[in-house]
Structure formats: structure tokens, C-alpha cells
Write a structure and sequence with these properties.
This protein has helices spanning 25-38, 57-71, 86-98, 116-129, 140-143, 149-158, 172-181, 196-201, 216-227, 231-247, 255-263, 280-292; strands at 8-12, 42-44, 76-80, 103-107, 134-138, 162-167, 187-190, 206-209. By secondary structure, the chain is α/β, with parallel strands linked by helices. It has a single domain (8-230), classed as TIM Barrel (Alpha-Beta Barrel), CATH 3.20.20.70. The chain has an 8-stranded parallel barrel with strand order 1-2-3-4-5-6-7-8, surrounded by 6 helices.
Length: 296
């Protein structure tokens, strides 16, 4: 199992598609190179921002292998490998490990709304099925239910390869409880770009970021400024990009960020249904901000 701590600036990577709907491997390689140059710490393909619900198992493995190959030793490759059926989540986790992932990000079961005992058993089966680190992904806004701090701490204490949580709620009470009670080896990462500054001020370990797709160097600089206790610099960076952080959710993620990357000339603007292009008025708002920031 990797000894590298799950911390710093991690990108929830988009999946570029061609007009025929297939995975655009050439653009994917360029995106990985973009992150290598920017100093991204962890790259995470096949998550929510990578349109994971629309990827086949074969595509998941293909994407992870390509990202692993292109990343080299410069970045940790953690891969999205979660779903709401435990047996399938175990299968995805094993496939990700076999494809070269150094950790997996496993979303809490959605729609079926398990009890806390059910969440525990779900992650127990995943942790026991793989030898690589497991990152719990708690995102109540998408799943419809919350993995409690008690359950997360219990899992972290019981399984040595459950090494982090992506806490993508804005529940500051739960975040502080996790930070206060976690085992020393366990990392707590925010999933909200808007919260990087206050989250890390409380002792958080970093971010799994959507905005890092567009501005990886700036997100890394914000994280580094907070690690160094340089609040003035962190506030400056946060102030510069706060509107972009917000506009990335003007419609459902990853539609705005993929539109941005298409405007930046990095991918084609192609989504898989049920996701569709943004409304023209929202495109105009986001395009203006991208111009203001000098990204296009």
C-alpha cells in the first residue's frame, strides 16, 4: 500500500469525449500533461466530474491505464470507483486497482439511502477487496444521505487502508468533528472549491477540486498558501477565483467546467446524455469570467 499521504491539490478530472461519443484519449493525455506541469498532487479520473455514471467498466479501466501511463511518478493517480450496489462497487474498485490506480475514491451509495450500519458494511466490503487506499466520498447533495462523522471515524479506525474522506458537504460542524477525532494517518479533504480557505484554516488536508481542471496552478498555490499559513496570499487567490468557483456550478457539474475547457481549446464540448450543453445565457456569463481571468 502507498505510504504517500492523501493531501494537497487533487483534480477531479473531466473525461473528454469525441463527437462520436468515444473517449478522446489524445485530449486526455494532454490534460494529464497540463496537470503535471501545474504541479497537481493527485489526479482523479472516473469520478463525478469524469461523468462516471456513463462510463462502461472497460472504459474505466482504459482511462485509468492511460492516466497512470501519462502521469508517471509526478502525481498520485486515484480513481473514481464507486456506485450504489456494493458488489458492483467492489468490482469497480478491483478493476481500478488492476488498471494501476494507487487509491480509489468511492462515492457513498446514492438513491437507496442506507442506514449508517449499511454505509459501514458497504465500505467494509470495499476496503477488504483491495490493497490500495480507499477515499470515502461523502456528497449528500448528490446521494441524498449523509455518512456521519461517527461512521467515517469508525471505518478509519477499523480498516488501515481507509485513509481519507472527500467531505463534499458544507456541514462545518461535521467537518470540525472529523478533523478533531480522526486517526493521525487519516486525511480530510474538501470537495468544495469555495471552502478551501476556511476548511484548511480548520486543519483540513487539501481539496479534490473541480476548478483545478481550469486553473490547476492557482488551486495548488491556494492550497500551498494555506499550508504555509500565508493567509494574505490565500485570500488574494481566493478572491481572484471565487466567482469562477461559483460559476462552475451555474449548471450541473461537469457541464460548466467542460464548456470552459472547450473554450480554452483543450477538449471538444461533448457530454454524454443525460447531460447536455449549457443554456446560451449561462455560456455567456461563464465566457465573460473566463475572459476576465485571461483563460481565453
Amino acid at each position: 500500500m502507498s505510504n504517500r499521504r492523501l493531501s494537497g491539490s487533487a483534480v477531479a478530472l473531466v473525461t473528454p469525449f469525441r463527437r462520436d461519443g468515444s473517449v478522446d484519449s489524445d485530449s486526455l493525455r494532454r490534460l494529464v500533461q497540463f496537470h503535471r506541469k501545474a504541479g497537481t498532487d493527485i489526479i482523479i479520473p472516473c469520478g463525478t466530474t469524469g461523468e462516471s455514471p456513463t462510463l462502461s467498466t472497460a472504459e474505466q479501466s482504459e482511462i485509468i491505464r492511460l492516466v497512470r501511463d501519462e502521469a508517471g511518478s509526478s502525481m498520485m493517480v486515484a480513481a473514481g470507483a464507486g456506485t450504489n450496489a456494493t458488489d458492483h462497487a467492489v468490482e469497480l474498485a478491483r478493476n481500478a486497482e488492476a488498471a494501476g490506480a494507487e487509491a480509489i475514491l468511492s462515492v457513498a451509495p446514492y438513491y437507496n439511502k442506507p442506514s449508517q450500519a449499511g454505509f459501514y458494511q458497504h465500505y467494509r466490503h470495499i476496503a477488504q477487496a483491495v490493497s490500495i487506499p480507499v477515499i470515502i466520498y461523502n456528497v449528500p447533495g448528490r446521494t441524498g444521505s449523509n455518512v456521519s462523522a461517527d461512521t467515517i471515524i469508525r471505518l478509519a479506525s477499523d480498516f488501515e487502508n481507509i485513509l481519507a474522506v472527500k467531505e463534499a458537504s458544507d456541514n462545518m460542524d461535521q467537518i470540525m468533528e472529523l478533523l478533531d477525532r480522526r486517526p493521525e494517518r487519516f486525511s480530510v479533504l474538501t470537495g468544495e472549491d469555495m471552502l478551501i480557505l476556511p476548511f484548511m484554516a480548520l486543519g483540513g488536508d487539501g481539496v479534490i477540486s473541480v476548478a483545478a481542471n481550469q486553473i490547476p496552478a492557482a488551486v495548488r498555490q491556494l492550497v500551498d498558501a494555506m499550508r504555509a499559513g500565508n493567509l494574505d496570499e490565500a485570500r488574494r487567490i481566493n478572491r481572484t477565483y471565487r466567482r469562477l468557483f461559483k460559476l462552475n456550478f451555474i449548471e450541473s457539474n461537469p457541464v460548466p467546467v467542460k464548456y470552459s475547457l472547450a473554450e480554452m481549446g483543450m477538449i471538444e464540448e461533448v457530454y454524454r446524455l443525460p447531460l447536455v450543453p449549457m443554456a446560451e445565457e449561462n455560456k455567456s456569463i461563464l465566457r465573460t469570467e473566463l475572459k476576465n481571468l485571461g483563460l481565453i
